[in-house]
Amino acid sequence: GESVGLHLPTLSVQEGDNSIINCAYSNSASDYFIWYKQESGKGPQFIIDIRSNMDKRQGQRVTVLLNKTVKHLSLQIAATQPGDSAVYFCAENGGNTPLVFGKGTRLSVIA
Amino acid sequence: DGGITQSPKYLFRKEGQNVTLSCEQNLNHDAMYWYRQDPGQGLRLIYYSQIVNDFQKGDIAEGYSVSREKKESFPLTVTSAQKNPTAFYLCASSFGPLRNQPQHFGDGTRLSIL
Question: How distant is the Cα of A80 from the closest Cα of chain B, in angstroms?
Answer without folding.
Answer: 23
